[in-house]
Amino acid sequence: MPTLQEIYREGARRLGGLDESALESRILLRHVTNLTPEAFERDHRLPLSFQRERAFFRLIKRRLSGVPTAYLTGVREFWSIPLHVRPGVLIPRPETELILEKALETRAEGMRLAVDIGTGCGCLALVLAREFPGCRVLALDISRKALRVARMNARRLAVSGIEFLRGDLFAPLEGRGLSDECDLIVSNPPYVTEKEWGELAREIRDHEPRRALVAGVNGLEIIEKLILGAGRYLRKGGRLIFEIGLGQSDRVLDLFGEEWRWVRPFDDLAGIPRVIVAEKRD
Questions:
Q1: What residues form DSSP beta bridges with 184?
Q2: CA nearest to 149, candidates 89, 104, 203
Q3: DSSP β-ladder status, 234-243 and 273-280
Q4: Closest Cα partner for 245 from 275, 207, 281, 209?
Q5: pLDDT digit string (tens) for the chain, length 282 residues
Q6: CB-based contacts of 45: which residues, under 8 Å, 6+ apart?
Q7: What are the Cα distances from residue 183, in Å, to 45, 64, 128, 191, 240?
Q8: Which of 198, 246, 247, 269 is the 20 to 30 Å CA partner of 220?
Q9: Global pTM value
Q10: What class, spelled out in words, does domain 84-280 have in CATH?
Q11: How many CB atoms lie within 10 A of CB 113?
Q12: CA dist., res. 99 & res. 87, Å (int)
């Protein structure tokens, strides 16, 4: 019977055409064996059963066909939290954590109400609810599937204080008396252009939700609506923090009017302007 180490190396070899093939082989084998990183290192010379070997190589085959690793394991780590993800729900990216870094820098006293527009698997809303105890968090999404996954993550992590609402952008807030009431609005909106969509990796185009990524011809259709709606619902001094795409910074800054102050882009670890922080004028 082959050992864990031997199977892991063969998986990495088969995935050799992919970036980080060794890491992906390790993730998939740990998923099949249900081993922690520590146990995987400790037991790497132990034999692997035939059934688990077959299950592992089935996952390798599906990965080679383009299925993202996060959909194969059902888990993606974000902000050091293992979150469940499913096909049809956007996989959280590391650069989106910059939204949270900027939100948590405020550490506003008496934060009462935060809104996450397009919550997806709930990654931003869950961290905000954890980091701002007592703050009411509204997590909005147009996708029923995304909201089911977000609710599941909240239950599994025992995070309370989040209300999940279905609808397009700010539509779920209408009629709730929340105009000029929000302290913070965060979002990872769609910002990919129609042209860029056709140029993305196959695994994204074939498996991740197009609606969560593409925003028309110029990529700014949703961002423009986001800025407009945020101006209506934020209190004076409240902040809007959202992600943008490569090369969009200057055009996005031009969308802000006189009701905004302190509008600034912030770079991700690659030096790309990735997040906009704007404060509503008093």
A1: 114, 239
A2: 89
A3: antiparallel
A4: 275
A5: 899 999 999 999 999 867 789 999 999 999 999 998 888 888 888 898 999 999 999 999 999 999 999 999 999 999 999 999 999 999 999 999 999 999 998 766 678 999 999 999 999 999 999 999 889 999 999 999 999 999 999 999 999 999 999 999 999 999 999 999 999 999 999 999 999 999 999 899 999 999 999 999 999 999 999 999 999 999 999 999 999 999 999 999 999 999 998 899 999 999 999 999 999 998
A6: 3, 4, 5
A7: 54, 45, 12, 24, 9
A8: 269
A9: 0.93
A10: alpha beta
A11: 19
A12: 24
Sheet arrangement for strand 113-117: 162-166, 136-141, 113-117, 182-187, 234-243, 273-280, 260-267
3-state DSSP assignment of residue 61: helix
Measured in degrees and rounded to the nearest 5, phi and psi for residue 42 equal: -70, -40
Beta bridge partners of 204: none
